[in-house]
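Q: Hi! Curious about what Transcriptional regulator, HxlR family looks like structurally. Here's the sequence.
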Amino acid sequence: MENTKNLFGKCPYFTAQKVLAGKWSILIVYHLNDGTLRYGELQRRLCDITQATLTKQLRMLEDFGLVNRHVYSEIPPKVEYSLTELGKAFNPVLEQLEIWGNKYIESLEESD
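A: Let's find out. The predicted structure is below.
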């Protein structure tokens, strides 16, 4: 088997898994899909996420090129997050995840 370090950027499944590895990554992209959000707005939408975790996840998504971070030079500092074109390209995947998630939820309800 090929060394997994060599799979990033070559294998689409490995690459996608690495980019979206964070527990909150998909939900962050989902909420930013609605449009630009300030840090606090995003944190409120994600309820259970800690400040440290949100910051880490946003930095990771920014490093992978899915999220833009815009800092306004004002006091107090204002920071907004939005999806890049690459991040927006994830929308069809989000829609399919919603369809599959709903089917899975239905199967859970049927088995009760």
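A: A fun detail: The longest helix spans residues 91-110.
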